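User: Last request for today: this protein with flavin-adenine dinucleotide, please.
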Amino acid sequence: MTDTISISLKVNGVQYKKDVEPRLLLSDFLRHELDLTGTHVGCEHGVCGSCTILLDGEAVRSCLIFAAQADGCELTTVEGLAQNGKLHPLQEAFREAHGLQCGYCTPGFLMTLIPFLKENPNPNEAEIRDALSGNICRCTGYQNIVKAVQLGAEKMK
Amino acid sequence: MKPPSFQYHAPKTLAEALSLLTQHGSDAKVLAGGQSLVPMMNFRVAQPAILIDINRIKELAYIKDGNDGLRIGAMTRQRTVERDANVAKRSPLIHETMPHIAHPQIRNRGTIGGSIAHADPASELPTVMLTLNAKLLAKNAKGERWIDAQDFFVGLFTTALEPDEILAEIQIPDLPARSGYAFEEVARRHGDYAMMGAAATMTLDENGKCKDVRLVFLSVGETPLLSSSAAQALIGNKPTPELIQSAAADTDITPSSNIHASERYRKHLANVLGKRVLTKAYGRVATDR
Ligand SMILES: Cc1cc2nc3c(=O)[nH]c(=O)nc-3n(C[C@H](O)[C@H](O)[C@H](O)COP(=O)(O)OP(=O)(O)OC[C@H]3O[C@@H](n4cnc5c(N)ncnc54)[C@H](O)[C@@H]3O)c2cc1C
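Assistant: Here's the final one, the structure of the complex with flavin-adenine dinucleotide:
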């Protein structure tokens, strides 16, 4: 066993302090240490996008960051989207527009889209497809995801 | 757990990082954005005993105006470079190239220095560095030296950096007056590593003849490849569409087959990409400078 490192960070507004092995990936830290299993793990080399979270407000792959690197950072995971038991408008849009089937990739799509829609509240289809290019979905064929984003953008206004 | 264990250091200053690197030598690896290194560690292709995380070194992240070009700190995130108004103005070739690198989530973390130091022949930035004759500042605990882009990329994932050196800064010389530029690539899916790509800069003289041209390809050889035949064909002549066409068709760039495509198709790609970037670069020559 290597030495552990003490980290403290905020996830979805809650402060945590933990000792971690340096090699612990942030994705595994969220799932196994904090029980925040909404962040999904797919390829574990940055290609599929299912582990996307917000690190200090920016969408990043949590499988390509070590937990130790997040010391002092503020994170948002998919669990942080719903407020007081009410889904985020983008989550509602995904449900209404059938933007998911099995749902495995959905947390990564949502966390990619939150900063995207904040920056670009009126995206056209090409911009939406470009924003989604780093997330893989094996069920939907993406059509309904694009529709969900359009609907979500409306709802978020 | 995916990666093997390692000792982790997160120095806050470059001096500290360099002294750690001197102390641990080739047992240590520098961790920049981690967008290439961490996948390799997750696959256990890379198993560094010691990781020196340089993400907390603020002095390595900046974009500044130099006297004859831009100066970019190695730890500047690719996304920051992409969005920087000064880069767009002073080095439009870099600005045009950035969106081709991976996806926004990767560029949010990945750094300009990391991409250059990684020296993947399929990467966009090494090719653009060679096209622009960038100068790369390497530092170790004892001092520093400048390396020209043409001497920096020495082989597959191999650079001129010594194990005790950190790439600290990238200097991008301004293009001379009457210059144009272009970057193009062909990828199966936007954001994927390209099957092939090309960058070009072209400078004309007062009479509209080609004074200098640089045409560089990615994903053809083990390093970015500069076409010397294109320069021979064009320099001293007016770059008419016919001349550009033949210069691009007759290049010394000879790709071989790979898992994505046959030699014939790749040769075709090289011709098409060469023609596109030369044509675009010529069309963009700014005569007002
Ligand atoms: C899904 C995916 C798709 C991608 N697609 C593309 C693409 O299309 N085009 C492309 O170009 N790249 C692509 N990348 C790679 C990405 O651009 C990386 O960010 C880049 O290759 C490495 O930069 P980094 O800062 O992440 O470096 P790291 O991964 O941290 O480091 C890479 C290597 O460089 C060394 N290093 C880093 N910084 C320094 C320094 N300052 N001094 C000395 N050595 C240093 C490290 O020790 C390591 O060996 C992709 C990555 C992923 C995960």
